[in-house]
Amino acid sequence: MQQYSSLPDHNSQIDARPKPLTTIEQLRAKLWLESSLNQLQSRLNDCLLSACKTVPQAGAAEAEILQTVVNEINSAVNSSNLALTDCAVGIALFEPQAIATVCYVSSSLSPNSQPLFLELLTAEKKLLLRLQEVIELEDLQQLENQQPPSAWRLADDSGNVIGWLIIAAAPLNSDREWLIESFSQLRSQLMARSAKHCTTALIQLRHILSWQQRYQELSNSNQELQRSNQLKNQFLANTSHEIRTPLSSIIGFTDFLLTPGFEPTQERQQEYLNIIRSSGKHLLTLINDILDLSKIEANQMEVQWETIDVPLLCSNVFALVKEKAANKGLKLRLKLDPDITTLVADPLRLKQMLLNLLFNALKFTSKGSVGLEVVPKGLFVYFTVWDTGTGISQEDQAQLFEPYFQIAKAVAGGEGTGLGLAVTRKLAQIHGGSVKLESEVNCGSRFTLVLPFRQEAGEVGGAGEAEGAKYSSSPLPFIPSSCVDILLVENDLPNANLMQIYLHKLGYQVTWVKNAAEMWEALEQLDPVLILMDVHLADGNGLKLVQQLRDNQQYRTIPVIVQTAMAMKGDRETCLASGVNDYISKPIDLPLLASLIAKYSKPPT
């Protein structure tokens, strides 16, 4: 003990030198650092949890995280007992122009407060920490590399720089260098670790938003699949009903006519045959609606642009619905603006659209009247079909033009599969127009078809229907003066019988074979003037048979007409490319068939 007392001057010297932080001060500093970081992490977790629950916009969620980091660091630094100066914290975001712009600053820096300077190694250049301040990248790199640093990088999960976490401080107010150095080290540790926390939170946020986006996509896809499944089930149920109803009439009345001992009067027999024919046409209409919708959705619908006599077309359309209106005791009203004479459109499709709207109006109207008003408005023609029927609720109007949708409280016994309006709207869009609806429950409805007066010149495609119409309007079929041999290659017995009977009545000699093998055998014995060829045969493809005929010197000049159920876009072209002379789709239009046979079997003049 005496040895120590002999060094009073030395001890006094030691007491006067700068001292490091005491153990208690070190613990307090470490506790402050960890507590501040824990508080920051807790706040960032809250931000991420909120993002999980609320599904925010990506920019808003990221902004919340960045502002939270700035505010928490600022609060920690300025509220600490270790703080010896005023500090401010900010974040500068990287810009494509290779600069950074200060977008976030600590909340303690109000707009009226004096901004703090960023300290640089060069005394002649100082930067203010304030919103919208632009900082060059080389200055940021200098702030990163100086000791202690004033900027720390923020990066995404790919390592790309998002921005920089920056701190600006006024000069430390103390003459104790050891305390200044200790505080600077603590502050640097806080900033560096806060930058890591911020980077991790931003990466986690992007993962959350990505998962949420994927979840939303899957949810939307699932809802769409459920909706499609419901529509499919509804369509199958409706279609099953629509198919079975006319089939019941066809089969039932056919059974009547075939019943042994049943001898109906000629009038009654004609009535039954008319019912069978009407039911068959209804089935064909159903199939055509389904095919039309499929063609439109596959962008395969063909249209023929023609200059249409609008008054004549409207009169023809009214003639087709007149009987149905009379059966229900409804009045039909047609109002045509005298200024409307012609319109460029597809006449078949325009008639189809107007008939769909008029039949719908008649279906949902039990008393009163149904009308069609045609007026010009600028470059467009407005075809408005109105009725005094039940009207349509707002809920049903939202789904009315969806495929297969039908109003739940439809008129009892009404026909349809929910395809007519969907097809009508899509056909209107193909014509460059639209369909509008105005309706109120118990006050009737107004469907307005809007079409432009003019279309692009020229034809689009060469539909089989148009070709058929051309022949159907020709004079009566040529009746041969002597027996003309026709070879019919047909897989289906009823269709073969139908064509045989019909052509025999016209004076043709028809030889029927049901497959390729029988065709070649028949050709060895016959010299037909024409071959009617089915495409789908039990032992081969009719189009390949045509190619084989064209490669055979003996048979290459025989005209071949394909009669097939292939009726989609491109089928006609495919058949003609195989070497056939002409094409007719099933169900067979008998007058059209006769016209085609007359054309190719008529001897040269």
UniProtKB/TrEMBL annotation:
Domain Histidine kinase: 238-455
Modified residues (4-aspartylphosphate): 534
Keywords: Kinase, Phosphoprotein, Transferase, Two-component regulatory system
Class in the EC hierarchy, top level: transferase
PROSITE patterns in the cross-refs: HIS_KIN, RESPONSE_REGULATORY
Domain Response regulatory: residue ranges: 485-601
One CC-aspect GO term: plasma membrane
Annotated SMART domains: HATPase_c, HisKA, REC
Record-linked SUPFAM superfamilies: ATPase domain of HSP90 chaperone/DNA topoisomerase II/histidine kinase, CheY-like, Homodimeric domain of signal transducing histidine kinase
EC number of this enzyme: 2.7.13.3
Top-rank taxon: Bacteria
Single GO MF descriptor: phosphorelay sensor kinase activity
Swiss-Prot/TrEMBL catalytic activity: ATP + protein L-histidine = ADP + protein N-phospho-L-histidine
Protein name as it appears in the record: histidine kinase
Organism: Nostoc sphaeroides CCNUC1
Organism phylogeny: Bacteria, Bacillati, Cyanobacteriota, Cyanophyceae, Nostocales
